[in-house]
Structure formats: structure tokens, C-alpha cells
Specification:
Elements (H helix, E strand, L loop, with lengths): L2 H31 L13 H10 L10 H15 L9 E8 L6 H8 L6 E7 L26 H15 L4 E7 L4 E2 L3 H9 L4 E4 L33 E3 H9 L2 H9 L12 H13 L4 E3 L3 E2 L19 H8 L3 E5 L7 E5 L1 E2 L2 E2 L5 E2 L7 H14 L1
Parallel strand pairs: 1-2, 1-3, 5-7, 8-13
Antiparallel strand pairs: 3-6, 4-13, 9-10, 11-12
Helix pairs in contact: 3-7, 4-11, 5-7, 8-9
This protein binds 2-acetamido-2-deoxy-beta-D-glucopyranose (4 copies).
């Protein structure tokens, strides 16, 4: 009689151990076969143990790609593996995305002067046809459409510029510029920097905050996962192959058109011009981009808009300060406000980051024209 309970207890303990081991194994197998799509599953545990768990698990089997993804990727891979025929001399396409007037035409005229066979100009004037003062801009307008700030029409205009510029087979590198952009170096320096680089200067960083991943919509699944969603300034320069794949892409473009827009899901504002290119290149050719933009802008005032330079701000010292920067800075929008600082590497060597700068008010024109020969000689 006395031994019965003891015997039962003796039997019960290993059963519990086996049961426990069985349940843990079952959980691990499930976690492996059905990896959590988002971090919600991690709330079951503390985030630290969840991270430890996912580190310990072997990488999850790759999901099946959709038909569209298979097709897109094969086209993109082929374009990337086909080196472009190098024309002589290779040209740079300067693509101006502007509402109407181009206040810095006189400055660009000085910049282009004497280099006629090594560049081409394209103008997308979305509001009114500009009156030109420089011969380099005459009859360079492409068919344009209205551009709504923060909307997909911005990407449409960029793609329209790329497609038109691709028509000239001599164009090897493509630069997007706004009406407030100015050149920081002379033409030879810029041409050399862009033609002999092995990457596109597309800005990209990971921002876990509300103005970064916070704008992601799960309706982009399965093609775009939250971990792929990146942010960056829209002012790019890109190699011909990259211009081609952006022109060819309809899959990712469509997802951003439909699921990244201002006023989405509960007032979430997503701006495709800040996310489409960084996310696209992060997913499809992360080693092919520099992760910073060669167009400088000053966010240091910490306001909603970057600093606009007035005539009184413009001096040789300002230009020297900007052209001497050799590190790029990104700040996240979460509470930590993490500052990410990286060196600017040109074919592996440290070099100044910036070729252009923006948010120069029209009133700075005369001063910039006066300074141009000086700073292109002495910087
Ligand atoms: C850009 O960032 C990716 C990682 O996100 C990295 O693999 C790549 O090397 C970076 N590009 C350069 C030129 O440093
Ligand atoms: C240039 O940089 C120096 C050193 O950071 C700074 O003290 C100065 O105010 C800057 N000048 C202009 C015009 O930005
Ligand atoms: C670009 O050149 C650097 C230095 O030679 C090299 O480390 C890097 O892998 C190259 N990137 C590409 C995309 O070819
Ligand atoms: C340009 O440089 C020359 C020679 O250094 C100098 O004499 C002149 O004052 C400079 N002009 C301006 C506008 O800074």
C-alpha cells in the first residue's frame, strides 16, 4: 500500500520531462517550419530570448517566390550581369525635375561650358514651361505630367526622365537634380567621379522609427518584408544598368504605388520617393549602391524641412565646408535618435562625399556664379 504512491511519483517525473521536451521540440519545429512573419510571435517571450532563439535556429527555408518575383529577378540579374557597351566619350545625363523656372541655369551654363560632348540635359517641368537663358537647356524638355509632392507621380516623373535619357546610348550615368541644386565642383571632377565609380549613389539607411519602418504596410507581403523596408533621400545618381532595371520594374513599383502613399491606414503617411529606390536596391543589389546621396542637404537644424541657404549664407567658407565632408550621417526617427556615421568610399578609398548641394534660394545665384570659378579652382 505504501509503495504505490511512491511508485506513481517515480513514474510521473520522467513523463513530465519527456512531455516537456516533446512540447519544446514541437515548438521549435513549428517555429522553424513557420517562421514568424513579424515580431508579434516574439512577444510570447522577452525580445532578448526571442532573438537568442532565432539566432540558435538554422535559417528558415526560403519561401517560394511569386511568379512575378521570379520573372523580375531573372530580368534584373541578367541586366546586372551584362556590362554596358562603353561609349566614347561616355556621357552623363543631367535630369532636372522642376516645377517651372530653373533659377540656376546661368550657373549650370558655366558648369557645362566647354564639355559639350560629355553630357546631356533633360528637363521635366511639371507646372509650366520654363523660359531658358542657357543654350544647354533649349528644347531639352521631355513630356511632363503634374507632380504631387510625396505622391507616386514623383516616381513616375523620375522614371519618365530615366526612360528618355536611356534613349541616348552614350549616357552612362544618370543624375537627378532639383531647381534648388547647385554644382560643388567643376565638370571634369564630377564626370570623373561618376563615370569611374562602380556603384550608384542611392541613399539608404535602416530607420526603425515612425518615419522609417513605421510607414511599412504588410499589404506589400510577400514581396516586400518589413526587414527590407529602407529609407533615403530621393536625389540619386545611377549607373546605366540601374536606370534600366528601374525602368523595367513593374512589380515593386506597383506595390509602392498601391501601398505606400500619404494618408494610408490610420493616417500613416508613406512617401514612395523616400522608400521605393532604397528598398528596391536593398533587396536586389545591395552591394551595387553607395548608401548615401552625392547631393548635400543640411538637416542639422532639426526642423521638418532642411536648411535653405540665403544670399547672406553663401561664402567660399560654406562651399569649402560642404566639399570637405568625407562622412555621411543618418539619424533614426525613433526615441533613441541613433546617429549613423559612415565614411564615403569611392572605389574603396575615402573621398569627399558631395558633388552637388541643394536648397539654395534663387537669390544666391549671383553670388554662386561669382564664386564658381574660385571654388572649382581652389577646392
Ligand atoms: C551599403 O549597405 C549594404 C548593407 O545594407 C552593404 O552591404 C554595402 O556594402 C554598402 N555599400 C557600400 C558601398 O558600402
Ligand atoms: C565651417 O565649418 C566650421 C568648422 O566646423 C564652422 O565653425 C563654420 O561656422 C562653418 N562655416 C560656415 C559658413 O558654414
Ligand atoms: C567597388 O570597388 C571596391 C574597391 O575596389 C570594392 O571593394 C567593391 O566590392 C566594388 N563594388 C562593386 C559593386 O563592384
Ligand atoms: C577669388 O580668388 C581670387 C584669388 O585667390 C581672389 O582674389 C578673389 O577675391 C576671390 N573672389 C571671391 C569672390 O572670393
Amino acid at each position: 500500500m505504501m509503495s504505490a504512491p511512491r511508485h506513481r511519483a517515480h513514474f510521473k517525473k520522467p513523463t513530465w520531462v519527456f512531455l516537456f521536451i516533446f512540447l519544446v521540440s514541437l515548438f521549435l519545429v513549428c517555429a522553424y517550419v513557420y517562421p514568424p512573419r513579424n515580431t508579434a510571435a516574439c512577444y510570447v517571450f522577452s525580445s532578448a530570448s526571442c532573438k537568442a532563439l532565432t539566432d540558435w535556429l538554422p535559417p528558415a527555408p526560403a519561401r517560394d517566390l511569386t511568379d512575378e518575383e521570379v520573372a523580375s529577378r531573372v530580368v534584373i540579374r541578367d541586366i546586372l550581369n551584362t556590362p554596358p557597351a562603353i561609349s566614347k566619350p561616355p556621357k552623363i545625363a543631367f535630369m532636372f525635375l522642376i516645377p517651372g523656372a530653373l533659377p540656376f541655369e546661368k550657373l549650370w551654363d558655366k558648369f557645362f561650358q566647354g564639355h559639350e560632348d560629355r553630357f546631356s540635359v533633360y528637363v521635366h517641368a511639371s507646372k509650366e514651361k520654363p523660359v531658358h537663358t542657357s543654350r544647354f537647356f533649349l528644347d531639352r524638355e521631355i513630356r511632363s505630367e503634374k507632380v504631387v509632392w510625396g505622391g507616386i507621380s514623383m516616381i513616375d516623373a523620375e522614371r519618365r526622365l530615366l526612360a528618355n535619357a536611356l534613349k541616348d546610348p552614350d549616357n552612362q550615368h544618370f543624375v537627378l537634380l532639383s531647381d534648388s541644386c547647385v554644382p560643388l565642383h567643376d565638370f571634369d571632377y564630377v564626370h570623373n567621379y561618376l563615370i569611374y565609380t562602380n556603384v550608384s549613389y542611392i541613399d539608404k539607411f535602416r530607420d526603425p522609427g515612425p518615419h522609417g519602418s513605421g510607414r511599412y504596410s504588410e499589404r506589400m507581403l510577400p514581396e516586400v518584408e518589413k526587414k527590407d523596408f529602407h529609407k533615403g533621400a530621393q536625389w540619386f545618381t545611377m549607373k546605366r544598368q540601374h536606370a534600366l532595371i528601374i525602368t523595367a520594374d513593374s512589380l515593386y513599383y506597383t506595390l509602392f504605388r498601391d501601398f505606400c502613399k500619404p494618408g494610408m491606414e490610420g493616417n500613416k503617411n508613406c512617401y514612395p520617393d523616400e522608400h521605393y529606390l532604397p528598398t528596391f536596391f536593398h533587396m536586389l543589389n545591395p552591394l551595387g549602391i553607395a548608401n548615401w546621396s552625392v547631393t548635400h542637404v543640411d538637416w542639422s537644424e532639426g526642423k521638418w524641412h532642411p536648411k535653405s541657404y540665403k544670399a547672406a549664407d553663401v561664402s567660399m567658407e560654406l562651399v569649402k565646408n560642404i566639399t570637405s565632408l568625407t562622412e555621411n550621417v543618418h539619424v533614426t526617427s525613433d526615441e533613441r535618435k541613433e546617429i549613423q556615421i559612415r565614411p564615403c568610399l569611392w572605389n574603396g578609398e575615402k573621398r569627399p562625399c558631395y558633388l552637388f548641394a541643394r536648397k539654395f534660394l534663387p537669390e544666391t545665384l549671383d553670388k554662386m556664379v561669382l564664386l564658381f570659378s574660385n571654388y572649382t579652382t581652389y577646392t
